[in-house]
Amino acid sequence: MATLRIGARSSKLSMSQASIVSGLVREKFGRRFELELVKVKTLGDRLVTANEALGNTGKGAFTGDLETMLLEEKIDIAVHSMKDLQSKETDGLKIGATPPRSDPRDALVSGDGGALGSLRKHARIGTSSLRRRVQLLKLRNDLEVVELHGNVDTRIRKLSDNRTDLDAVVLAAAGLDRLGEAARISQTFSIDEMVPAVGQGIIAVQMRRDDKKTEAIVSRIDDKDARLESVCERAFAKRLGADCNVPVGGCARVSDQTINMVGMVANEDGSGFVRTAASGRRSDAAKVGRDLAEGLLARAAGAAS
């Protein structure tokens, strides 16, 4: 019997996402082939475990090792969080499937269960994201935003650690849901309140570009709306050059034959904050993303002059 080797990070969230992919494959193909899960501790995982910042390693820290295994044919597919993938595809690889998207929004998890507005003055909120930091301070400029690294379960655990003195943390709603922790959410931010990261809530199933046998399998679990939303958002990020460490957010949603997208960009210190929206036909998803990026760049340039 043939075997489909599924590579994924060893974190709890990644294992959950790999399980989602495995379940979808089983739904479509039953027991026609074996599924082998290959757990990989990536460079990003090793740095997080050592409590070190990612620095210049960027997004590739969580994907590079899996991509190398794909290219070396040690695995057949790699399961990623779409937001961890760089906007420019790696030579020889492609995204073979995007399963149905989970909630793309950001969520607040507070120690007392209260929403952002109810937290004490100068409350301490943990996040490692510049994008979240900038938007949190737009919502409440008295907050103390604290650098917080680690996997989702680690960040939740640090909330109850007296040594961190945190009032709340901000995490992706999708990650909390996939870990069975959705009940911990104190507030879910609207997309306008806090524009999500590009690709947030989307699972990317990556494969070798010339592997037709694997493509015939993973194409069956592809969700058309999730794919169009990811195409729109990744075109937006690519035009902005948003793989570097700057506050950028972008979220597209398909509605019938239309695709709508909201985007934001700012300087690291929160200055020059610009947020805007664009829409167009779903068949023009990439163009909508690029046009939105052009609009943001033009507005940012105007504000700076």
How would you characterize the overall build of this protein?
Helix content is 33%, strand content 24%. The chain is α/β, with parallel strands linked by helices. The protein has 3 domains: 1-98 and 202-222, 3-Layer(aba) Sandwich (D-Maltodextrin-Binding Protein, domain 2), CATH 3.40.190; 106-188, Periplasmic binding protein-like II (D-Maltodextrin-Binding Protein, domain 2); 223-305, 2-Layer Sandwich (Double Stranded RNA Binding Domain). A 5-stranded mixed beta sheet has the order 2-1-3-10-4, with helices on both faces. A 5-stranded mixed beta sheet has the order 7-6-8-5-9, sandwiched between helices. A 3-stranded antiparallel beta sheet has the order 11-12-13, covered by helices on one side. A hairpin with a 2-residue loop joins strand 11 (248-255) and strand 12. Helix 8 (224-240) packs parallel to helix 9.
In short, what is this structure?
Helices cover 33% and strands 24% of the residues. It has helices spanning 12-29, 43-49, 64-71, 130-139, 152-159, 173-178, 212-218, 224-240, 285-304; strands spanning 3-9, 34-40, 77-81, 93-97, 106-110, 124-126, 144-146, 168-172, 187-188, 203-208, 248-255, 258-265, 274-281.
What is the fold's blueprint, element by element?
Elements: E1 3-9, H1 12-29, E2 34-40, H2 43-49, H3 64-71, E3 77-81, E4 93-97, E5 106-110, E6 124-126, H4 130-139, E7 144-146, H5 152-159, E8 168-172, H6 173-178, E9 187-188, E10 203-208, H7 212-218, H8 224-240, E11 248-255, E12 258-265, E13 274-281, H9 285-304
Parallel strand pairs: 1-2, 1-3, 6-7, 6-8
Antiparallel strand pairs: 3-10, 4-10, 5-8, 5-9, 11-12, 12-13
Helix pairs in contact: 8-9
